[in-house]
Amino acid sequence: MPRGRYSLHDPHDHTPLAEEHFQCAPGPSGWRYVARRTTPTGDHTGSVDLTLDDLGRPLRLELHAGSWQVRGAALDGVTWVRTDPTGTHATEGTVRAHAFTGTSPAFLVATARLLRLTPSSAATRVRLVALTDPVLAPRTVDQSWALVDSEAHATDNGPLTVDTYQVTALDTGEQHSVHIAGDVVLSAPGIELEDLESPPSTFA
């Protein structure tokens, strides 16, 4: 069960934004990721709880940021309920999309798991509902994912396969790379893996 810490920063000016203390593991239903968010000074700011089924679809999502909360799942596309800080108003949404995304590294692992690309696969288009910080506002985004490299690296625990994805935002054409080993993001724009206490899990 990998556990560790990501640092999150602004991908443009590298301003530190948060640290995400996580643990994740494959399980009977598929894969689960839980994390708590803190500021760079250690104050609690939110949490992530994501469970995927064995096909990579979101069985259950619960996000907290400040006093905002979103609960969601795959249901006729993806469906969610967003609750405001006072707890008196809740808004529901449903979009014909494949999954959720956001600033947590968990969503990159989830999208890669959902698409299950191979180096010979063509670039694949995916529609996601992005839950944007700091108020978890939902917006629909279209991306293209391609697995451009899959390379095994020797480690003390045996070979570790690192997959490199090229992700394209279809509305702007902006491209970036995401490096994933098993169920851990090694690096991506705005994300650095700072600490890992045990090797990544591998999916069957």
The count of domains is: 1
Number of helices: 1
Shape summary = globular
Largest sheet: 15 strands, mixed
The proportion of strand residues reads over 45%
For the largest beta sheet, what order do the strands appear in spatially? 8-7-6-5-4-3-2-1-15-14-13-12-11-10-9
How far do the termini sit from each other? 15 Å
Task: Give the SSE order as H and E letters.
Answer: EEEEEEEEEHEEEEEE
- Low-confidence regions: none
What kind of assembly state do the chains in view correspond to? single chain
Mean pLDDT: 93
Helix amount, in percent? under 10%
> Cα-atom Rg, whole angstroms?
16 Å
Q: How many beta-strand segments?
A: 15
Helix/strand structural class: mainly beta
Organism: Streptomyces galbus
Protein name: Glycolipid-binding domain-containing protein
Summary, kept brief:
This is Glycolipid-binding domain-containing protein. The chain has one helix at residues 105-115; strands at 3-9, 16-26, 30-38, 44-53, 58-65, 68-74, 78-83, 90-95, 99-101, 124-132, 137-153, 160-169, 175-181, 184-188, 191-196.
